[in-house]
Amino acid sequence: MSVSTEARELGLSILGLGTRYPPYTLDSRAVEELSKRYHPETPAMQKVLAINRFTGIDKRSSIGRPDHWLVNQPEPPTIAQLHDVFMSDGVPLAISASKEALAEAHINDVSQITHMVSATCTDSANPGYDHYVAKALGLSPFVEKTLLHGVGCSGGLAALRTAANLCLGHSTRGLPARILVVALEISTTLVRSELESIHSNQETRIGVCLFSDCASAVVVSNDIPFSPTEPLPPPVYSLLDWRHQTVPDTEQDLGFDTHPQGWKVVLSPRVPNLTASVLEPTYNSLMSGKKLPEGYGSPKDFDWAMHPGGATILTGAEKVLGIQPEHMRASYDTYVNHGNSSSATIFSVLNRLRGKEMDGVAPGGRGARELVVGCAFGPGITVEMCLLRRNLSRTEGGRKGMETPPETEESSEDGEGGREVSEEEKKGSEVSEEEKKGSEVSEEKKGSEEEAFIAKALESVELD
């Protein structure tokens, strides 16, 4: 028995994935170090630092360490300085992730890329960062570029949905479509601004405990080859269907507000309950009318690629959907070892899910499932959910390249484009071989007892 004809006829494939994390990792002590360096102990700061110790995140990926010059100035960095670092340290990550995705998609001639859809919520400029990624990759000036704004953590799947619709448009016209989808987020540089707000306003702002840096990319294709002699490579995933929904009257619960010192995370205590409440109806809508293969009758029969917005979001999904942590094993693995990288995270999760070691810890030892549900939440609150069919014969991708630092040179200028970096600062930005080894993520899955402890600890923390 197969997926419905309607889903199969879409002819949409993900041909390649790429993920790049920067070379530094931060544990919970990094936030505490900067907090003590610049702010006195206050009730709000103590509360945030207590939450910081129980996020369930072991390490967050970052473009720098607590001694990075950008977060060690008398005042938090300006939005202009943040933009310059986004371009100097972030764009090379996006270029590397794109190259990895293109290589796996067997696209040796970049002139075959017809569209580019990108997302970020940690930068804003005209032209957008996608312009410079396209230029570095040598894409044709005729490539149709689209940069999404205002989509936050759901940006990866929003970009995938947009690419899918563009593919279908080209299919209707009888034209081949090869779309490069890119997501790039540099979040850790906002730490000083967030700490300043916690101190000045005595607010409990937990975004400073969760977010990390990452770039990821996928290549999306329709089923029309460029020529009869150039057949399409086998897909990594096939995209079968998707849903987008906005939860009414939740604009004040989840967002990212513009500020002279970058962006300010909006994250209310209602978010875990709100996201949990919309999961089941969105899932039911996604599955409505589909003739699924035998053995797929409820959420627990699928594998899940859930955006790890926070531990309470993942544990809330388990309760509502009746699934186990192992169903979202790649989400937990990404969250624990890298943190929440906003829009770039979901492609990292999908990349991680196909690792052989992930298959070995599937629920009940059943092995990997062919059908996968992807899900992410963004500001609004919006939910993006999609149904994917994984090509189980292609498991070699996995973690390949995910921890590799980009091949870039250290910048000798600051965000204002003129200050020379001191020898002490340069030394603080160097990574020793021992530290590189220490940043490599363990392949062992976190035990269910540890996850239960984290969930219980978080449930006891008052977030409002």
UniProtKB/TrEMBL annotation:
Signal peptide: none annotated. Residues 416-449 have a biased composition (Basic and acidic residues). Keywords: Acyltransferase, Transferase. It comes from the Eukaryota. Residues 75-223 form the Chalcone/stilbene synthase N-terminal domain. The keyword Nucleotide-binding does not apply. Residues 245-389 form the Chalcone/stilbene synthase C-terminal domain. The keyword Acyltransferase applies. InterPro entries: Chalcone/stilbene_synt_C, Chalcone/stilbene_synt_N, Polyketide_synthase_type-III, Thiolase-like. Residues 406-415 have a biased composition (Acidic residues). Residues 396-464 are annotated as: Disordered. Belongs to the thiolase-like superfamily. Chalcone/stilbene synthases family. This is Chalcone synthase. It comes from Podospora pseudopauciseta. The lineage of its organism: Eukaryota, Fungi, Dikarya, Ascomycota, Pezizomycotina.
